[in-house]
Automatic annotation (TrEMBL):
Identification of the protein by name: Motility protein
One Pfam assignment: YjfB_motility
Amino acid sequence: MDINSIMSSNLLQLQQTVQMSVLQNAMNMETVAAVKLLEDMPQTAAPHPYKGSAVDIQG
């Protein structure tokens, strides 16, 4: 195996490693942004659909 093919193989592996690193960082940034959006959402509870407004009388 000559030096050019060794270097070419190493370069390909390095490119793949860098691509995976960039992809991982992008995913982490998107995850952080999504968590921030969820944390910033108002935390008001939804009203119960019928509790307190309907009376069930069986007798």
